[in-house]
Each structure stands twice: as structure tokens, then as C-alpha cells.
Design brief:
The chain has 14 helices and 2 strands, in the order αααααααααααββααα. The chain is mostly helical. The two termini are about 45 Å apart.
Length: about 280
């Protein structure tokens, strides 16, 4: 039986509950459901599920009634719709936190490795710090982070990293990094990656007060052609690979840094101006 609280993507929920209902009989055929919802276009629901159309809040209420959702489930379904349709990071974050307020959803999220890694800015540096220091003193580890976090936050983060398969204890009780494949293609994962990147940019702004000998924050403004853009992106990719290799070859690590490279437009292209 489809449980709405196991979903963060309303389109996936719709696809699964429609499949479940259609298996019951003709009363829940796509045509019958669309008629009961007052839809004139036969392909409307299919377009919504495929991401070609957006679900209105009015129709989301009708769908909740049609499938017999409780008031709490209707509210959750509406929040999924609002989260999916939000256009800014702040808006998405607002509705995402509402989704997390459901305890059953939190339990489901803990089963997703990629959600764990990107849900907090300090998960990735803490993973590296655990391997580097081989320490179980969560209070000290929390104070090492910039900005610092509490021992309880470190404890919860370690549990999430272990459960997500990003770190583990070896037979001789040593922390060891695990390589886990990440999937960021769907709406929720993509949002969390964007939020994580925004958190990193906020930390970069705080780092402006760090002594110059301990950081490098610089940039250049470029005038370039459209054909040049993929070449620059490829060069950045190679640069990230080179500095990663330098770090690996440097020997025993005693500190953790974040290296971020940003390439973004400051002026609209002619095609963007003419289309508005």
C-alpha cells in the first residue's frame, strides 16, 4: 500500500498511487480518474507525472479527496507540490523544512545516502576530520570546525555518515572513508546540492576575515564568447582534478580546506534580453 510519507516528490507519489488504484479495476482507469477530477484533456495527468505540466493547488486538493487522503496527508501532499514548484533556494528550504517536520519522513530520509551527505554543510569536513584525527571526542571535533558545532551535532552527523555508508570503523577500530555513489538527479537531491553549495559560499564569505596567509580568495571578470564557455568549464574540471591529486600526494594531512570555483554570468546575453 502506497504510504505518502515515504515520498518527497509528488510526481512519484502520483505515479505510484495511480498504478495501485488502477490495479483495483476500471473505476480507477486514467480516463475515469480524469473525468472525476473534471479534467477535459486526456493527457493532463500524464503530463504532470512526466514533469511537462505543473499541478495546481486546487487540483491537488481534488486529488486528495479522490484518493481518500486524511487532512494531514492532504497538507503533506500540498507541501510536496509547493516544494517542487518553489523557484528560489529560500522558498524550497522553507517547504523542505516543513516536510522534515513529519517524523516518518525524517526516518525515510536517513535511508538516503546522498540526502545525508548534502543536508548539512559540516558532514563532508567532519568525515575528513574523523579519518585525519582518528578521534571519538565529539566535543573537540565540533570545536575544530569553522564555525564550531556542538558535540550532539557531531554525534548525529557521525551516525548519519555511518548509516549513509560514507564512513565506517575498521576491525582495528579506525575510521575509514567509504566511497559511495551519489544520485542528485531528482528534485529533492538537486535542491540539497544547491543548498549545500550556497552554504559553502556563505562560509567563503566568513573566511574573508581569515588571515591572508591561510586562504586565497580571488577572481577575475571576463568578456567571452558563447563558444568559450564549455572550454572554461572543462578547464575548471581539470583544475579540480589537479588540486585533488596534489592534496592526495602531499602526504599526511593536518588540516581541511574547501576549494570552490565559481563561473557565472554578470550580464544577460542578447538572446536573454530579446526574449523578455
Amino acid at each position: 500500500m502506497v504510504n505518502i510519507h515515504e515520498y518527497l516528490d509528488y510526481r512519484r507519489f502520483l505515479a505510484d498511487i495511480l498504478a495501485e488504484k488502477r490495479a483495483i479495476g476500471a473505476a480507477y482507469s486514467m480516463r475515469a480518474i480524469q473525468k472525476r477530477l473534471g479534467l477535459t484533456s486526456n493527457g493532463y495527468l500524464s503530463n504532470i507525472i512526466a514533469g511537462r505540466s505543473k499541478l495546481s493547488l486546487e487540483l491537488s486538493s481534488k486529488i486528495g479527496d479522490l484518493f481518500g487522503l486524511s487532512e494531514s496527508e492532504k497538507k503533506y501532499f500540498k507541501t510536496m507540490v509547493l516544494f517542487s514548484h518553489a523557484t528560489t533556494v529560500d522558498e524550497k528550504n522553507h517547504f523542505f523544512e516543513q516536510l522534515l517536520s513529519y517524523r516518518r519522513v525524517k526516518a525515510k530520509l536517513l535511508q538516503s545516502a546522498s540526502l545525508n551527505l548534502f543536508s548539512k554543510w559540516y558532514y563532508t569536513p567532519l568525515r575528513e576530520l574523523l579519518v585525519m584525527e582518528q578521534s571519538n571526542d565529539y566535543a573537540v571535533l565540533g570545536k575544530r570546525l569553522m564555525p564550531p558545532i556542538s558535540a550532539d551535532e557531531v554525534s548525529q552527523a557521525v551516525a548519519a555518515l555511518v548509516k549513509g555508508g560514507f564512513i565506517k570503523k575498521t576491525e582495528d577500530d579506525k575510521w575509514e572513508r567509504c566511497e559511495t555513489s551519489l544520485t542528485t538527479g531528482d528534485d529533492v537531491h538537486s535542491f540539497l546540492v544547491v543548498r549545500f553549495q550556497k552554504d559553502m559560499l556563505d562560509l567563503a564569505a566568513l573566511a574573508l576575515t581569515t588571515p591572508l596567509e591561510k586562504r586565497d580568495i580571488s577572481g577575475v571578470t571576463l568578456a567571452l564568447s558563447e563558444e568559450c564557455l564549455p572550454l572554461l568549464k572543462e578547464e575548471i574540471r581539470r583544475f579540480r582534478h589537479r588540486i585533488s591529486q596534489i592534496a592526495v600526494d602531499s602526504g599526511s594531512a593536518d588540516r581541511i580546506y574547501r576549494c570552490s570555483v565559481q563561473l557565472f554570468p554578470l550580464v544577460k546575453g542578447n538572446e536573454d534580453v530579446s526574449s523578455n
